[in-house]
Amino acid sequence: MSAIVDRTVLIDDSEIDLFIQRRFLEVYSFTNDLIAFKSAQEAIDALSANANDSAPDIIFLDLNMPNIDGFGFLESFERMSETIKEKSRIVVLTSSNNKHDKDQAFLHKNVIQYITKPIKQSDIDQLKKILGKTQS
Q: pLDDT digit string (tens) for 37-91?
């Protein structure tokens, strides 16, 4: 089974959530390369530094994090290089099922899906459709 996307970034401050999400994405052969960050700032720094070589296809983003939250990341993302903004799509993966949070997330054009944790097979199936990768 070939991966759905080449490179994926996970951003979540919870070690447990990162472990669960990583495992799930591995089991479903979602990506060839998975990079995890425990803070939005770490991810912003890494993505900005490597902007032209290795922009991820998908960024899974938690909203509720200390210091810079998911919305802070989204604002910083909009100031990143055109290369990243053209290639990377963002999936909000959060414990928040607040309608206001969902509406706010979708104001950012790179946000393509909003998933309430935990991620499920149906979420991956929906993401495949959004990405136009429905062949199995």
A: 999 999 999 998 876 678 999 999 999 999 999 999 999 999 999 989 999 999 9
Residue 136 inside a domain? The answer is no
Per the structure, the complete domain to which residue 78 belongs is given by 5-131
Residue with tokens 């998975």: 34
The DSSP 8-state label assigned to residue 7 in this structure reads E
The closest of 20, 37, 38 to 120, measured between CA atoms, is 20
* CA–CA distances in Å: residue 101 to residues 72, 85, 111, 128: 13, 21, 12, 23
**31-37 sheet: strands from edge to edge:** 31-37, 5-11, 58-61, 89-94, 111-116
